[in-house]
Amino acid sequence: MARNIVKLGALEAQRTAFLLCDVQETFRPHVKHFGEVVNVANKMMEAAKHFKIPVYVSEQYPKGLGHTTKDIDVCNAALVYEKTKFSMYTPELQERLKKDVPALETVVLFGIEAHVCIEQTVIDLLNENISVHVLADGVSSRSLMDRGLALQRMQSIGSFITTSENVLFKLMKDKNHPAFKHISKLNKEPTVDTLGYTMSKL
Questions:
Q1: What is the per-residue pLDDT across 117-163, written as a single tens digit (0 to 9) for each?
Q2: In sequence order, which residues have a C-beta less than 8 Å from that of residue 185 and are 6 or more positions away?
Q3: Is 83 one of the catalytic residues?
Q4: Is 99 part of the annotated catalytic residue set?
Q5: pTM confidence score
């Protein structure tokens, strides 16, 4: 795929990785729309199997904060790893990405919190010339102000602020894709508007 097409937001499954950031049960009472983030994470985990896209799951200091919520099935993840750094882009992840997706061009990112770990991951990935699609329906924070401002900042520095449905249909490209029925079923319900976003806000 031509690099300029990637910069326009195109996606190619063989050159893409999914990153799920720190959706740990201990955060449920504190993070806005936690349940929606979980739903999107499960959608993306299921879709990843059909597109053969590896999913990498981080857990922030699980010794003190616990593990990924059991409401998300991560058994098919390529890697579940611990971190203390806020960014997901740790040396461990970097090594696995080089091994698993040597032609990596794009990362699809979802999880929490938008203004901390998600944003710092975006900065690190963009710094490595990796395109980033942040799922607006799949990220959140304790504060909706922090979430909204983080999405604006991430867009302003060059990431694509998008939705799970948009990404999955970009990966399919064609109704004749073998996974069309499965992916369409995952998107039977429209994207839940948890932000009330309009283009003027972005």
A1: 999 999 999 999 999 999 999 999 999 999 999 999 999 999 999 99
A2: none
A3: yes
A4: no
A5: 0.93
